[in-house]
Amino acid sequence: MIELRNVTAMQKGKATAENIQLKLNNGSVYGICASEEQLTLLTDLFAGALTPVDGTVLINGFDMTKEAKRAKEFIGFMPSQSFLPSCMTPLEYLLFVADIKGLEYRKTVRRISDVLDFTYLSSKRNTLIKQLSVYEQRCLSLSQAIIGRGEILILNMPYKGLTLSEADRLTALLEEAFEERTVILGDTDAQSLRSLCDTVYAFDGQAFSLMEEKGSDPTNRKEER
């Protein structure tokens, strides 16, 4: 289970969320529709990149503040900004990420090869990242998120900067990557979330409101507070 328990968080010195609560069960794809600022706040909280001022973030029972190393073992995170090292190649970068995640070296090389094949970057493995297109860089960001086989995948605005055709191509990859994972997908466009997610929430900075749930009456709205 993924849980925000009475969480207050601050971003850039300003309180942007106060006393928020949410429980997400394992095994589903959850969408969160909010502004870019709020999505960054939420996904950073879930991934452990932002420490709450108050309250608790739990990942499969582990407190993200007190047991961050254990909690992060379950997580693969794709932020909205790639933050990729421009003077590395995809191969060098994924070896670096695998080392940080503590993956066994003997298994790492094969795993990187599989991931690059999956994201269609094998032919670019020795190309400098700064020479990759925006779409290829997004695929590399997805690659680093899934390389550790984490049970929980967190993605913040994966379509940012892509054309419609590129977004369609990325969607096909995401649908495969989502298999057998719990997913939190954040975007400003509710429609793109509806096509991929089992449950979609809207977040206004104070509460989560259920927008849509597959198999339920879309006119039935409820809130998590």
Order of helices and strands: EEEHEEHEHHHEHEHEEE
Average pLDDT value?
A: 90
Number of helical stretches of at least 4 residues: 7
- The number of E-state strands comes to 11
How far apart the termini lie comes to 17 Å
How would you classify the helix and strand content by structural class?
alpha/beta
- Uncertain stretches: 217-225
Radius of gyration: 17 Å
Q: Please report which band the strand proportion falls in: under 5%, 5-15%, 15-25%, 25-35%, 35-45% or over 45%.
A: 25-35%
Helix content: 25-40%
Shape: globular
Main beta-sheet annotation: 7 strands, mixed
Strand order of the largest sheet: 6-7-8-3-9-10-11
Task: Give a structural overview.
It is a single chain. This protein is of the alpha/beta class. It has helices spanning 36-47, 68-72, 90-100, 105-118, 134-146, 164-177, 190-194, and strands at residues 2-11, 14-24, 29-33, 54-59, 62-63, 75-78, 152-156, 182-187, 199-203, 208-213, 223-224. The strands form 2 sheets. Strands 6-7-8-3-9-10-11 form a 7-stranded mixed β-sheet. A hairpin with a 4-residue loop joins strand 9 and strand 10 (208-213). The longest helix is centred in the middle third of the chain and has 14 residues, at 105-118. The two termini are 17 Å apart.
Strand and helix map with partners:
Blueprint: E1 2-11, E2 14-24, E3 29-33, H1 36-47, E4 54-59, E5 62-63, H2 68-72, E6 75-78, H3 90-100, H4 105-118, H5 134-146, E7 152-156, H6 164-177, E8 182-187, H7 190-194, E9 199-203, E10 208-213, E11 223-224
Parallel strand pairs: 3-8, 3-9, 6-7, 7-8
Antiparallel strand pairs: 1-2, 1-4, 4-5, 9-10, 10-11
